[in-house]
Amino acid sequence: MSLEIALITGMSGSGKSVALRALEDAGYYCVDNLPPELLSAFLALEHQHHGNRVAIAMDVRSGASLAQVPQALQRQREQGVVVRSIFLDATTDTLVRRFSETRRRHPLSHDEGLDQRRVLVQAIELERELLADLREHADVIDTSTIRAAQLQGYIKGLMSATPQQLTLVFQSFAFKRGIPVDADYVFDVRMLPNPHYEPGLKDLTGLDAPVADYLCQQPEVVQMQSQITQFLEHWLDLLASNHRSYVTVAIGCTGGQHRSVYLVERLAAHFQSRWVALRRHREMDARTLP
């Protein structure tokens, strides 16, 4: 059996420890902050002693050697290793709040000036620059507004997808809680008829049959679904031929409960016959957690 690597990278404070715990629960042998120089030797050793599934977290603490990672991973792929790369991100405001709440020092923050927020923001923006190449070649998960249990579920969902095949992630969200920073494409459906104002539908969701029945009868909804479908069908083959592993399509409405949820379900159902299609409902997933 071939070796499978899950590489977890991302911004400091974005949830890499949570992601590693999820992978450990899924049966991966996990290592945090492995120096990139040791990657090849470590993988050879772990393949010999610990099985075929390894999860490694790397981040900006590796310093200048981090630039070696993309080439090292490509060499592993050429040797038949299955490589899955996940980048955890969050908005700057979210990261500042998390560091402030935990009173942790950012690994790139060395200035003890009076304006601690400014120093922290500068460190975060520098980190974004240093990690830009790793982000470009990974599936990105925005952890700004999701809980730890949601992140664990998202990680396990991605790892269950068929390796070496384009994976589509359809995500519903509420504009009032911010646009997901992990989205490759964002579609605004707030102009569509809103079940929130229909008697008996307000407290339901786009997963419920009465809401789905209402929306599928609205010409604007049908047209929007058709146009998004045509757009994606036109470009997905080119994305796949360009060695893209993941594409995240975010559908946003006002509350992330009715219209966006309905369209995510319909789009995922349409594309799953050809591609791996995962569903995420950012606001609803948070509500269903204990």
TrEMBL record:
- Which InterPro entries would you find in this protein's record? P-loop_NTPase, RapZ-like, RapZ-like_N, RapZ_C
A GO molecular function annotation here is:
ATP binding
The RapZ-like N-terminal domain extends over 4-156
Q: Does the keyword ATP-binding apply?
A: yes
Give the keywords, sorted. Answer: ATP-binding, GTP-binding, Nucleotide-binding
| UniProt-annotated binding residues for ATP | 10-17
Record-listed GTP binding positions: 59-62
Please report the stretch or stretches of sequence annotated as the RapZ C-terminal domain: 167-284
Question: What domain of life does the native source organism fall in?
Answer: Bacteria
Q: What name does this protein carry? A: UPF0042 nucleotide-binding protein
Native source organism of the sequence: Giesbergeria anulus
